[in-house]
UniProtKB/TrEMBL annotation:
<feature type="transmembrane region" description="Helical">
    <location>
        <begin position="183"/>
        <end position="207"/>
    </location>
</feature>
<feature type="transmembrane region" description="Helical">
    <location>
        <begin position="100"/>
        <end position="119"/>
    </location>
</feature>
<dbReference type="GO" id="GO:0008233">
    <property type="term" value="F:peptidase activity"/>
</dbReference>
<dbReference type="GO" id="GO:0005886">
    <property type="term" value="C:plasma membrane"/>
</dbReference>
<keyword id="KW-1003">Cell membrane</keyword>
<feature type="transmembrane region" description="Helical">
    <location>
        <begin position="140"/>
        <end position="163"/>
    </location>
</feature>
<feature type="transmembrane region" description="Helical">
    <location>
        <begin position="258"/>
        <end position="276"/>
    </location>
</feature>
<dbReference type="Pfam" id="PF09721">
    <property type="entry name" value="Exosortase_EpsH"/>
</dbReference>
<keyword id="KW-0812">Transmembrane</keyword>
<keyword id="KW-0645">Protease</keyword>
<keyword id="KW-1133">Transmembrane helix</keyword>
<dbReference type="GO" id="GO:0006508">
    <property type="term" value="P:proteolysis"/>
</dbReference>
<feature type="transmembrane region" description="Helical">
    <location>
        <begin position="45"/>
        <end position="62"/>
    </location>
</feature>
<dbReference type="InterPro" id="IPR026392">
    <property type="entry name" value="Exo/Archaeosortase_dom"/>
</dbReference>
<dbReference type="InterPro" id="IPR022505">
    <property type="entry name" value="Exosortase_cyanobac"/>
</dbReference>
<feature type="transmembrane region" description="Helical">
    <location>
        <begin position="21"/>
        <end position="39"/>
    </location>
</feature>
<keyword id="KW-0472">Membrane</keyword>
Length: 292
């Protein structure tokens, strides 16, 4: 009987790893769990990012479905099942916004990749795993990222001064004649910059680009995130100087902060659209030159 059970387990894993239906079902379930948790967390910025990245990952895998090698072993399948089991168990009790919450997408990708292709086959999914990592995991790196609050404060104070306000800078404090605002790390813009960096990575993964664009696109993403947040800090300083507490709370904590995130994403989207338009025009110009 023991020999029969030992023979059954490899057959079970063999059937699972070679069945695209099971892999699709498990992947869809993991995606649904994460999106449900994100929805419960009530963070519009995270919801949009998660849907966009999951859709991109699904699209990338679907485009290469006929070229993927589904050759997993018993041990790799066990590890994959273990990762998925941990996600299922923890998802019922994890605090929304916790560290494990941010790791769910990449852990889901690792578990599903091990089920499908084993340890050796994980390299097939490196682009998808990187994309899943950028859904939430970069937020875990924020405490170790250099604090750019002084730079943000200096930039916002310069904008205020250039616009005609009597702005003075003291470290991370921007002072106007009737009020002072502190630029602490949470308002430095690093979160928006990380968010746009993920979108830049997604753009580079989804569309063909040359080496110059691969360098230029992330730089533009970081710059847009920093500049848009700098104008947001400027607005907050003006509202503090006007003693407009209600407007300050709106633009600082509530939907107003989300508006600036949307502006940053739209600006980066316009840049990517312009880049694609230029790339599409170059082959046509080359064809015309070749014809002539």
């Amino acid at each position: 009987m023991l020999m029969a059970m030992n023979a059954t387990y490899p057959v079970l894993f063999q059937r699972l790893k070679t069945s695209p239906f099971w892999l699709l079902t498990i992947g869809s379930g993991l995606m649904a769990i994460h999106l449900t948790l994100v929805w419960r967390a009530d963070n519009p910025n995270t919801i949009g990012t998660s849907i966009l990245f999951w859709s991109a990952v699904a699209s990338l895998v679907w485009q290469r479905r006929d070229d993927l090698k589904l050759e997993s072993g018993v041990f790799a399948s066990l590890v994959g099942f273990l990762l998925i089991a941990v996600i299922l168990i923890r998802s019922a009790s994890i605090p929304l916004g916790g560290n494990f919450f941010d790791l769910i997408p990449v852990l889901s990708g690792l578990g599903l990749g091990l089920l499908a292709s084993g340890f050796r086959g994980l390299k097939q999914y490196w682009t998808e795993l990187v994309a899943l990592f950028f859904i939430g995991a970069p937020r875990l790196l924020e405490p170790w990222i250099v604090d750019i609050s002084p730079i943000t404060a200096k930039f916002s104070a310069f904008i205020l001064w250039y616009s005609g306000f009597e702005a003075k800078l003291n470290g991370v404090y921007i002072s106007l004649p009737t009020g002072t605002v502190e630029v602490y790390p949470g308002c430095s813009g690093i979160e928006t910059m990380i968010h746009l960096s993920g979108l830049a990575l997604l753009f580079l993964l989804m569309f063909p680009t040359n080496w110059i664009q691969k360098i230029f696109v992330p730089i533009v993403a970081l710059s847009i995130g920093f500049l848009v947040n700098g104008f947001r800090v400027m607005l907050l300083a003006i509202l503090v100087a006007q003693n407009n507490t209600e407007a300050f709370d709106y633009w600082h904590h509530r939907d107003g902060s989300f508006v600036f995130s949307i502006i940053a994403v739209l600006l980066f989207g316009l840049f990517c659209w312009f880049l694609l338009q230029q790339s599409n025009q170059e082959p046509q110009e080359n064809k015309i030159e070749g014809y002539e």
